[in-house]
Amino acid sequence: MLAVVDNLRLAMGTFLGNPLRSLLTLLGIVIGVTTVIVMMALIEGLRLKVNNDLSQLGANTFQVSKWPMGFGRVNWQQYAKRKDLTLDDMRAIQESCPSVGVVSSADSRGAQKISTATLETRPSVRVTGASAEYIDTSGITIASGRFFGQVEAVDGRQVAVLGLDIVDTLFPNMEPLGQEVRIKGRPFTVVGVLQRRGSFLGMASMDNVVIVPLRAYEVLYGTVNSVSLSVQAQSPELLSKAQDEVTNLMRRRRDVAPLEPNDFEVRTNESMTETFNQLSQVITIASFGVCLLSLVVGGIGILNIMLVSVTERTKEIGIRKALGARKARILGQFATEAVMMSLLGGAMGVALGFGLAFLARWMLGFNTIVPLWSVWLSLAMSSGVGLIFGIYPAARAARLDPVEAMRSE
């Protein structure tokens, strides 16, 4: 135990004796560990936000769509050959699937501009055309007013439900209900205002939206080729059964052969979370690749400084060996110094990573959480690098002949 304490004391003395040289040597390790801590904090915070945001998309629901999610490389031409989803599919699901409670249909168009007689929004609004059942399957809540009804949806009446971003822009300090907004030059009467939902994944605002009946939407933008269907099961226990019923029905309606894959997408909150997790795994692997490269650079620096240290302290080593220090003690001394230096670099990287994670939380507006495992793994990796790259200089010091070492200048 005394030997360990003595080695630690000598290691700290070496670091304090050459602080600038030691800090420059540890720069690679500091950068690598900082990268891991910051990236893991961002990914963990983003994962929690994804789970929270997806929970707002509607309870016991899943989506049926012609198109897949757009993560990674997607061959859109291949998916464009699929059959469109229609309102007939929505009605068939409602009538033929006993485990299904509600089905809605919707389509949307982004980068739109909404105006009144005196004000207008930026061209960043998402206009959604939906059936009357959309209120039950989308997870939205009405803050004031109402959602449009079945008669209004069937007749395609020009009524609109606004997100709060639109209200803040077009009706500052005014009651929006009953007011008129214009979409592509056509007047729509405001019948409802949505409850604020914030941003999705810290990026696109979910309050910068206008919802109108699907038939009125088709008047604005032309006939919808393929709608997206949101399906709500009768209960959480029937969600899986409802998915199976809808999948089997859609395969029959679209004449999909028994062994062929689906030519449509069925997405749940869990499947979207899994897709994000796959993406985050790729980012995690890339982050550890950067960390490993930086650690190797830092390890080479430690190897270099330890060789210099052995050369500078040759006479000291000779004296210690002449006084009875064994090879194992000398080996342990220099190996401890290498591990201590790399561990100190790892600790500095962790501290800097926590600071940058806090800065990212403040700048990006969503929680960044540093997983405890990433801290321990970073410290273990930095210590391992110090041990690996410090073994050779330590072994070289342990092999020195005491007589020859004491003669050195």
Helix/strand-derived category reads: alpha+beta
Q: Which regions are unreliable across 5 or more consecutive residues at pLDDT < 50?
A: none
Q: Tell me the number of strands.
A: 13
Major sheet, described briefly? 11 strands, mixed
Oligomer classification = single chain
Q: Percent range for helical residues?
A: 55-70%
Task: Summarize model confidence as the mean pLDDT.
Answer: 80
Order of helices and strands: HHHEHHEEEHEHEHEEEEEHEHEHHHHH
| Percentage of β-strand residues | 15-25%
Shape label: elongated
> Count of DSSP helices?
15
Calculate the terminal CA-CA distance, rounded to whole Å.
33 Å
Global Rg: 32 Å
What does this protein look like?
The protein is α+β, with helices and mostly antiparallel strands and 409 residues long. Helices cover 56% and strands 16% of the residues. The relative contact order is 0.19.
Note the topology.
Blueprint: H1 2-17, H2 19-25, H3 27-54, E1 61-65, H4 76-80, H5 87-96, E2 100-112, E3 114-115, E4 125-130, H6 134-137, E5 142-145, H7 150-155, E6 159-162, H8 164-170, E7 180-183, E8 186-194, E9 199-200, E10 204-205, E11 209-213, H9 214-221, E12 228-233, H10 239-253, E13 265-268, H11 269-312, H12 314-322, H13 327-364, H14 372-398, H15 402-407
Parallel strand pairs: 4-11, 6-8
Antiparallel strand pairs: 1-12, 1-13, 2-4, 2-12, 3-7, 5-8, 6-11, 7-8, 9-10
Helix pairs in contact: 1-13, 2-11, 3-11, 3-13, 3-14, 5-10, 11-13, 11-14, 13-14
